[in-house]
Amino acid sequence: MNAVLETRSLCKAYGGLAVTQNLNLSLARGARHALIGPNGAGKTTLINQLTGVLRPSSGSVWLDGVDITQMAPHERVARGLSRTFQINTLFPQLTPLEAVTNVICERERARLGVLQRRFFRLSQRVDEIDEAYALLEKLNLAQDCQVETRALAYGKQRLLEMALALAARPKVLLLDEPAAGVPEGESDELFEVLGALSSDISILLIEHDMSLVFRFASRITVLVSGAELVTGTPAEIAHDPRVREVYLGKGH
Amino acid sequence: MKKLMLCGVFALVAGQAFAAADTIKVGVVAEMSGTFADFGLQMTNGAKAYMKQHGDSVGGRKIELIIKDSTGPAPEVARRLAQELVVKDHVDFLAGFGLTPNAFAVAPIATEAKKPTIIMNAATSAITVKSPYIARVSFTLAQVTEPMAQWAYKSGLRKIYTVVADYGPGHDAEQTFKKAFTRLGGEVLGELRVPLKNPEFGPFVQRVKDSKPQAVFVFVPAGELAVGFMKAYEERGLAKAGIKLLSTGDVTDDAVIDALGDSALGVISTHQYSAAHPSPENTAFLAAYRQVDAKTRPNFMAVGGYDGMAAIYEVVRQLKGNVDGDKAMQLLKGMKLTSPRGPIQIDAATRDIVQNVYVREVKRVDGKLYNVEFESINAVKDPGK
Amino acid sequence: MLNLFGVLFDGLAYGTLLFLISVGLSITLGLMRFINLAHGVFAMTGGYLLVILMAHAGIGFVAALPIVFCVTALASLVLEHTLYRPVYKRTPLDQVLITVGIVFIAIASANFAFGPGQQPVQLPAALKGQLDAFGLELSRYRLFLMAVGAAITLALVFGLERTRMGAMIRASVDNRRTAQSMGIRVDRVFQITFAIGSGLAGLGGALGVNVLGLDPYFSLKYLVYFLLVVVVGGPGSVIGTLLAALLLGVADTAGKYYVPQLGAFVIYAAMIVLLLLFPHGLLGRRYAR
Amino acid sequence: MNMMEIAVTKRHHLGALKARERWKPAEIVFWLALVAVYFVFPTSLVFASQILITGLFALSLDLILGYAGIITLGHAAFFGIGAYTVGLLARHGWHEPLSALAVAGMVAGLAGYLTSFIVLRGNDLTRLMSTLGIGLLLYEAANRATDITGGVDGMQGVEIGELFGLFRFDMYGKSAYLYVLGVAFLLSAFTRALMHSPYGLSMRSIRENRTRAQAIGIPAGARLTNIYTFAAVIAGVAGALLTQTTQFVGIDVLGFQRSADLLIMLIIGGTATLYGGFIGAAAFLLVQDQLSNLDPRYWLFWLGILLIAITLYLPGGLLGALGRVSAAVARKRRGEDA
To answer: Does D200 touch chain A (CB under 8 A)?
Structure first.
């Protein structure tokens, strides 16, 4: 099973409250996997455990066959695990160009000598800046690349969230409700960007916008109060009675 | 901003040329603000009292005080102020220095600029060694501590506990007392060192009480710590338990004694000056001081300021107004003065003060508390050197 | 064995005093998230007010205390309205700067009005000396301190937990916007909280004159002790502040009695250890600034 | 867009980044003015050196407070360690100033590194108190070790040798001023380069949003320890400079008052501006000196009023206000051109 990202009997509990129950999630290479579930199903807590912000109570997280459970968040990013945030978590006074260049310089940290990293001017890192500009162009943020992030429109900030995650050249990309707060009409632009992502990036998408999920995902896992209800293709999930029950609330 | 400073400098330089001719300038570096603000206030009031009494000119030359605030124990500020007084204001004398670190920091300036520097309060023995241009008119801690040990032994006390503030001068007082007292055959039961920033004396005093000494010798700087200790002393009922309280004059200092209240009655202390000292010079000093500042009670620091000015006046008189560093020091060495505290002399060899040290007891004299002197040890040199 | 009780008693009494003075700061800092370094100024005002009332107006020590509380509380309202209100929403640094400015003005004014020296306070006979209780000599003044401390703690806890006003205070702190939307006049609530906190500081200052002494430099000199107790106890939690005050009071007193040569190390070391163990204070709420 | 246009637009954004890093005229004027002080105010060079030393010390606090967002009330600890290191070296025969300066910086840096683990825990308030606690403990230790440090009376017998064997630190402070100016310029330029490098950008991103900084791969904890250590080195050097130019070490180099004043100076100057420290220190010390000459006993009153006025009417400190003024002027000029 060439799962690029895998959890093995992952559990997380705050005292008596079990937020993640014995979860065995596995993300195949190049997958377009969606994770859906009602509010409070523990989706964001799961992402925080995958990215190392939260330590699980038990079980483990594997990336490319390496146990990263005890690893610090920045090391996981270096190994290719990147994420976006449900609520914009950006750098208000940095410009998009500075923010994305910052990610790329950090990624290339090993290649740069200490002097280059510490004392040479940022503007001398021409390759990193050009790569950043190219990425911003791809997400049509190029014309705003000099505007302070706090001055950007909400939609553009959502795109910048994506840009920051992509700039780390991830093997695995965790998208935490990318379409959150984006009005119906504008999510197409976002969908276009998602679609254009290269196939060697495996994506785990957490989303409520069912139209985006069913247009984008090739596999879907339904999470209910921290446990995996069912995993399958979009078609299987659409017709599965338990899913309808959970969502339409007739259930237990 | 820059232009303002520029014309300021030119005005200053021009002004100086004119004034240098007939005014003798005394640069006073003193703690006028901060925790030790009362040190500066007392010294400068004492100096002004002398000038009020003897006029502000001598030998045809007008005497001018330039007072600079060192803001507290801040050696680099004191050194900078002294440097500016010498280089910009062209003072003829430097004076003041309530705290030892400020005096140490200015010593190199005094030496390099050959400026006679009068120490009006700082009490660590080593100060006069730091520069041949320093003379002291106040006192040294060892000078007032040793007589206390001698008197204690003479009055039959054999077992004493010492409590001192935990800093340089405190350690000196502790060692001087212990050396003198044990040499005579007495025994020091224990030594306690109290932190300088110390709001709570209770436990220390309790520890002293529990070891039941005949008396406790205390040295803490004048002001808040003295008040704190006396309150704990009274609250823990050491007096009732028959434990006498001996101290240097700092604890029962004239400016603080009111704040101590009746708990200070009966405390025996040794110091060079008490406001109750019966001498015409003292009465005149107190009258002159009241004209300068009626609100505060003058203490030994004010007398330091007063005698400092007396020494300066004497030097200017003998040099007939043209003050030269080396000549001034020659005159200061061995100089004798009758001070409000009694006869004083500046030792020719060490340029430190030789004076009577009085043993006093706190009594109520027409409604106010005073340290009433009942014994005098004459012409005490600083044992610290 | 006897002096162990003695040390404990002294420690608790000293802790109570620290609590009285600091609890006001805990309220303003924790409940209103306002860094009020000028808290010591209210304590100092209380002290000087006591001196004036007793020396010039001839009012007794115990009678003067409630007056000190009310006058300081009212005075703090004036200050809150003029200088503090514009800075509530500003950065912590701006709050530090303006409150330090107030401290400097208070020091200079006290120095100008009362001179740099210590202020004498004559305790009434009933509170002087010691009381023999089951073989232990307990200082009357410290007993009085602990009684006042206990009374105020009860009043505060009861006030915050049980009364409507307390509920409004806690509500407007937890979520200012929701409280406002529920019709609570949050500004009015903060004003009253601030006044109570400052009044307590004034009372603490007055009670502290006999132990800590009083001079113009009081508010800066003891600023460290107020902050120490509040931060270790957890800002905003009355019980936390009391716990921290008593703990640090006993630690300081025991340190001075049993290992005097360590002197001031004990209280500072205890503080750092407690901060490491409880990064958000003993009972502090986990609000991240 | 054809190749040419892409090249042009791509270079445009590079130009904007470059513009940010170039030495602005105001910076050049600032350093030239400091050199001019040597000639224009020959009698106040000791005071000028002390302002520069305090400015350098404030720059080191700016690194921690302005760039890393850590509030500290115990920064004098490293200043004091630097001062005492040079003092102890001098007392034991090591008189050469430059090498002693380097040693002082390293010792202070080591102390910074060791205490950074304590300081980087908890929230702003606990950090404020733990730095304060460390400062007070050091002060108590220095007071206690009277035979080594000279305790409250200060360290005696501190003789500093000539700089490069030629220039003696005399009373007039001429060579001392140039020495301090040289060291201050070098360290400021060094810090300026640091802040305009990718490392500096990562520091700014940590301050702006630490969660996101970690989520894009920045080891925030290690980076904060790193900047805290570097700031301690600069503070140690500043302390060492004070000892060398005043040839004395008082215990107040470790005092709480010094840390508190420093925080006020930096706020007055404006944080995270590299020059806020120097401007704030100069303004504070000059005003304090003028006020205390006018009114030696109650100058604190006027200083208090000034602090309140600055908070209410000059948010962001002097440089903050200057920034707004120059922005307004630039907008007006651009308004006229359009």
So the answer is: yes
Query: Hey, what are D215's tokens?
Result: 């989520």
Question: Token pair of D34, please?
Answer: 């400091």
> What's the CATH class of domain B142-271+358-380?
alpha beta
Q: Which domains does chain D have, with CATH numbers?
A: 26-298 (1.10.3470)
**Paired sense of beta strands B244-248 and B268-271, if any:** parallel
Which chain B residue is nearest to residue D140, measuring alpha carbons?
A: B195
User: Residue B68: beta bridge partners?
Assistant: B29
Contact D235, D105 (CB under 8 A): no
- In angstroms, the separation between the Cα of residue D20 and the nearest Cα of chain C is 26
List of chains touching B (3+ CB pairs within 8 A): C, D
Q: Do chains B and D touch, with touching meaning 3 or more CB–CB pairs less than 8 Å apart?
A: yes
How far is residue B247's CA from residue B245's CA, in Å, rounded to a whole number? Answer: 7
Q: Domain B2-139+278-351 is classified in which CATH homologous superfamily?
A: Response regulator (3.40.50.2300)
What is d(CA C196, CA C76) in angstroms, rounded to the nearest whole number? 9
Residue whose token pair is 């200012």: C176
- What pLDDT shows up at residue B16? 45
Maximum C-alpha span of chain C: 59
User: How many residue contacts between A and D have a Cβ separation below 8 Å?
Assistant: 117
What value does the mean pLDDT take over residues C77-87? 88
Element (H or E) spanning D43, and its range?
none
- Confidence at residue B350, expressed as pLDDT on a 0 to 100 scale: 92
Asked whether the beta carbons of D146 and B168 are under 8 A apart, the reply is yes
Cβ distance D17 to A99 less than 8 Å, yes or no, reads: no
pLDDT of residue B277: 92
- Within 8 A of A138 by CB-CB distance, chain D residues are none
CB < 8 Å to B256, chain C: 117-118
**Contact status of D70 with chain C (Cβ, < 8 Å):** no
Sequence-distant (6+) residues with CB within 8 A of C82 are none
Nearest chain C residue to B163, by CA = C260
Tell me, yes or no, if B376 comes closer than 8 A to chain C by beta carbon: no
Mean pLDDT on A63-67: 90
Give every CB contact of residue C160 below 8 A, 6+ residues apart in sequence: C166, C169, C170, C238
Alpha-carbon span C233 to C252, nearest angstrom: 16
Option in D14, D193, D205 nearest A123 (CB): D14
Q: Which of C116, C128, C212 sits opposite B37 (nearest CB)?
A: C116
Is the CATH number 1.10.3470 carried by domain C2-116+134-277?
yes
Q: Does the beta carbon of D294 lie under 8 angstroms from any beta carbon of chain C?
A: no
- Split at pLDDT 50, 70, 90, the class of D336 is low
Please give the pLDDT value at position D9.
52
Q: Which residues of B touch C122 (CB under 8 A)?
A: 261
With pLDDT > 70 as the criterion, what percentage of chain C qualifies?
Answer: 97
* B2-139+278-351 and B142-271+358-380 have identical folds: yes
- Residue B6: the pLDDT is 53
Task: Please state the length of chain C.
Answer: 289
pTM for the predicted model, two decimal places: 0.88
What is residue D28's three-state secondary structure? helix
pLDDT at residue B37 tops 50 = yes
H/E stretch holding B245: strand B244-248
Map out the domains of chain B as residue ranges.
Answer: 2-139+278-351, 142-271+358-380
pLDDT in tens, B333-360: 999 999 999 999 999 999 999 999 999 9
pLDDT of D51 > 90? The answer is yes
Q: Which of C120, A108, A2, C139 is nearest to B260 (CA)?
A: C120
Q: Please provide the average confidence, as pLDDT, over all residues in chain C.
A: 84
Pick from B28-37, C160-169, C261-270, D75-84: least confident = C261-270
Q: Report the pLDDT value the prediction gives residue B177, as an integer from 0 to 100.
A: 93
Indicate contact of B with A: 3+ CB pairs under 8 A: no
